[in-house]
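Re: duplicated header lines in exported C-alpha cells

Our pipeline writes sequence and C-alpha cells for each protein into one text file. With two proteins the header for the second block appears twice in some exports. Here is an export where it did not happen, for reference. First protein block:
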Amino acid sequence: ETRSRSTLTQKTNQLQNTMADEAAALEEKARLEAEARRQKILDGAGNRMDLVTGIQSKDDDGAEKPKSSSSSRLAAMRRRRFKKGGAAKKEETASTTESTEA
C-alpha cells in the first residue's frame, strides 16, 4: 500500500511538472508572439513616419523607391513660391498667362 501510494505521488508530481512545463511553454510562446506583433506595429509606424517626412526607404530587395510623395512636391512648391522675390515671379507669370489668353 505504501509502495502504490509513493508511485501515485510520483505520478502526480510528474503530471504537475509536465503541466507546469506546458504552461511555461505557452507563456513563452505568447510572449514571443506579442513581441513579434509589437515589432510589426513599430516597423509599420516607422515606415509611415518615413513616408510622411519624405525619407526614401529601401524595399526588401534593396532597391530604392522613387521619391514621388505629395508632401515632397508640396514642400518644393512652397520653397519656390515663398523664396525671396518668388511672389513677384508668380504675379508676372499670372499676368503673362492672362495677356496671352486675351
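Second protein block, exported in the same file:
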Amino acid sequence: GNNVSTVAVAAVRFVPWLKHMLGRHPLSRSLLLRMDVEGAEYELLLELAASRVLEQLNNEGWRVVVLVEWHQQHKQAAVARLTPDRLDTLGRWQAELKGLPPAQAAE
C-alpha cells in the first residue's frame, strides 16, 4: 500500500515572530519581507495590516519592502472569510498604500 508518514512541525504566528525578530535587530532600520506561502498571503497580509507594525516602522524611519507571490486560486476563499472589521482594516491599509510612490505600492 501507501507509504505515508506524519511529520510534526512547529508553527508560529507571523506578527509576534516579526516583532520579536525586529527587537533582536533594532539598529537594522531595513526590512525585506518576501512571501511565498501558497495562498496564505491574503490572511497573513490582513494580520500584518491589523497589527499596524509596518506603519510603526515607517513612522520610525525604517525602509520596508514587501514582495508577495500571489496565488490567485486561493483568493476567492480568502475574500469569503473577510468580516466587516477585516474589510475596514484592509481598506485602511489600501488607502495607506495608495499614498506611497508607485514603485513602493506595486500590485
